[in-house]
């Protein structure tokens, strides 16, 4: 098993993390945990390539579609560069800002950083982020993991069908933002919602015990 990626953070992201509510911080941390495990292989629905070595991490915080830009260094370190709120489908200004931050980071920051950031403590400039050890039994984290599993299942089935978000939204009688919110892990799964989406996806809902990715999926109807 490969060692997880480590994190370093720029001041903008560090300040943003420090100002999150406890619940929002847990949601960011859970998605960051997936990124630490997969790195550049994470893919959708939580990661998307922007430009050059810069990617974005997608986190849904209630009604806010948050985006954290990052790059994976050759030394298995992920640097979180900038953060912004998605307000349109393609924001070139934010992409350019993240690309500039990456170039400065690559040019000026070499070797390990001595400072460490933990929730509530900010020191130094370019710092290492030590993620907390989450409680396995934390009910709030369990709900977050269930929502992430739901989002991944929906994304995978939509992708398998070759549907755009707009096309699935039309099929399901929902808005594009509602579909995106589910895929980004911002919506708790309910039996009624799962069945409704399964009908739009020509599939049946399958559930297993547990709360991690793979605990829910949409199984295609038999031909």
TrEMBL record:
Molecular function GO labels: DNA binding
CDD domains according to UniProt: HTH_XRE
Matching InterPro entries: Cro/C1-type_HTH, HigB-like, Lambda_DNA-bd_dom_sf
Any coiled-coil regions, as ranges: none
Ranges of residues in domain HTH cro/C1-type: 154-208
Any one Pfam family match given in the protein's UniProt record, by short name: Gp49
Gene3D superfamilies: lambda repressor-like DNA-binding domains (1.10.260.40)
SMART domains: HTH_XRE (SM00530)
Name under which the protein is recorded: Helix-turn-helix domain-containing protein
Organism: Streptosporangium canum
Source species taxonomy: Bacteria, Bacillati, Actinomycetota, Actinomycetes, Streptosporangiales
């Amino acid at each position: 098993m490969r060692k997880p990626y480590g994190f370093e953070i720029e001041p903008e992201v560090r300040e943003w993390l420090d100002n999150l509510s406890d619940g929002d911080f847990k949601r960011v941390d859970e998605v960051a945990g997936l990124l630490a495990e997969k790195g550049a292989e994470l893919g959708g629905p939580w990661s998307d390539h922007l430009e050059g070595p810069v990617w974005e991490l997608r986190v849904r915080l209630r009604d806010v579609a948050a985006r954290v830009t990052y790059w994976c260094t050759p030394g298995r370190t992920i640097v979180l560069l900038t953060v912004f709120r998605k307000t349109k489908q393609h924001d070139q200004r934010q992409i350019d800002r993240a690309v500039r931050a990456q170039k400065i980071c690559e040019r000026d920051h070499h070797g390990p950083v001595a400072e460490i950031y933990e929730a509530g403590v900010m020191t130094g400039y370019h710092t290492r982020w030590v993620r907390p050890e989450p409680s396995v039994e934390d009910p709030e984290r369990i709900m977050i993991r269930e929502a992430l599993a739901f989002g991944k299942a929906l994304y995978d089935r939509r992708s398998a069908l070759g549907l755009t978000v707009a096309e699935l939204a039309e099929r399901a009688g929902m808005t594009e933002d509602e579909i995106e919110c589910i895929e980004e892990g911002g919506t708790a799964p309910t039996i009624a919602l799962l069945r409704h989406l399964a009908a739009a996806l020509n599939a049946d809902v399958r559930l297993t015990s547990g709360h991690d990715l793979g605990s829910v999926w949409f199984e295609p109807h038999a031909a």
